[in-house]
Specification:
The chain is an alpha+beta fold. The protein contains 17 helices and 10 strands. It starts with 10 loop residues before the first helix and ends with a helix.
Length: 391
């Protein structure tokens, strides 16, 4: 096409010139083939890789505590991944803890722990699924194991409520709750986790392809928070532990829907079916009062006991705030799912299992070191071994 009008004797020379120019062009733009080194196969375990003081790196403060955690979690010696490769249980455990504690990139993980990125992607998912299947009874439907301690929890919450200070007036609340008749033993609330926009992108390949329908995004979008994501319902104890963790569901659902769908009131009743005194979970104003769920009075103007009921509301609200401390501690210790870029609902990431692991590891951390809540209520959580043995 380029040389169709050229003289016949000129065509061979023109083609030769074009070949020379094209060869020079290739030298300019061509990239030399990069020979990748074979993946490193490092022998890594808790003893030779975990420093003696490892609280910053793994959140658990000593090599001894890391070994105790590895033991009670009953992690197998070897994991066989879904592509047939094998990896040491201790090696994968350290990678998993690094990912949970720092949301580290796979490039950083490969640089420190060797192997390939795909191995650790499969391995982290396998570890999360293993821990969920092995220990889900710890924070799902475990209320019956805690019911005998509800009187102790209620007594501690009553004492703190009676000693509380009204944040608005900086004066004592003086609700004068009777310890023998105080029936609030735990707190209920919901925790939202934002994610990337769900269901975005082109619906088919090609230039100017139509976008995916907005209906998928709408299913996970919360207009009040202006975020997409999912949420969990949590029942928290004054000894610093999470007793029940239900979900995930779309962030679009409200707390009342979650309480009804999870049947949390029925579960609290079933856990105390043989107890003479029944204890409640205290929630914020959105919850509907039920046989085992209680919220603030919210006395109207003109109510004959409004002053007393308002003092009780302020006292109980100050006690209820510890659930927010638990959510904050969860995000500080194990922020993996708080990164939108790594938190994708439509991906192969096992969101339910990883969210469970964050809460389970926080409970383990509280068993070893206590937290702000357990110290405020002067309640000592069970030891790590006792928690996995009896709860």
């Amino acid at each position: 096409m380029l040389y169709q009008n050229a003289h016949p004797s000129a065509k061979p020379a023109a083609f030769a010139r074009a070949e020379v120019l094209f060869a020079r062009y290739l030298k300019l733009v061509a990239v030399e083939e990069v020979v990748r080194p074979p993946p490193q196969r490092l022998l890594i375990n808790i003893e030779n890789h975990c420093p003696s003081n490892c609280g910053t790196k793994y959140r658990f403060r000593s090599q001894e505590d890391m070994m105790r955690l590895f033991t009670v979690l009953r992690i197998p010696a070897v994991f066989k991944l879904n592509n047939g490769s094998r990896v040491s249980g201790e090696h994968l455990f350290l990678v998993f803890m690094t990912r949970m504690a720092h949301a580290s990139s796979f490039e950083d993980i490969v640089r420190e722990y060797g192997r390939e990125k795909t191995t650790w992607g499969r391995g982290i998912n396998a570890m999360a699924c293993f821990l969920y299947n092995e220990h889900k009874a710890k924070i799902r439907n475990s209320m019956g194991k805690w019911a005998d301690e509800f009187p102790v929890f209620a007594e501690a919450m009553c004492r703190v409520a009676n000693e509380s200070v009204n944040g608005r007036t900086s004066q004592p609340n003086n609700p004068n709750f009777d310890p023998d008749g105080f029936t609030v033993a735990c707190v209920i609330d919901c925790n939202n986790t934002p994610t990337c926009r769900v269901g975005s992108g082109p619906a088919e390949p090609g230039v100017n392809a139509p976008r995916k329908p907005n209906v998928v995004h709408s299913a996970f979008y919360n207009g009040w928070l202006h975020q997409s994501g999912y949420k969990h319902q949590s029942v928290e104890l004054p000894n610093g532990l999470t007793m029940d963790w239900w979900g995930p569901v779309s962030m679009r659902q409200n707390d009342i829907w979650m309480a009804n769908t999870s049947e949390i009131n029925r579960k609290l009743a079933a856990a105390q079916h043989s107890n003479a005194m029944q204890y409640y979970a205290f929630g914020d104003s959105i919850y509907v009062p039920d046989t085992h769920i209680r919220r603030r009075h919210g006395a109207a103007e003109g109510h004959p006991n409004k002053d007393q009921l308002d003092r009780e509301d302020h006292a109980l609200n100050s006690v209820r705030e510890y659930v927010e401390n638990h959510f904050g501690q969860l995000d500080q210790l194990f922020p993996y799912t708080r990164s939108k870029g790594q938190n994708k609902i439509a991906s192969s990431m096992p969101i339910k299992e990883i969210s469970f692991c964050r809460v389970l590891l926080r409970n383990c951390h509280v068993c070893l070191y206590e937290n702000q809540t357990s110290k405020r209520f002067d309640l000592v959580p069970p030891s790590l071994e006792n928690y996995f043995l009896h709860y």
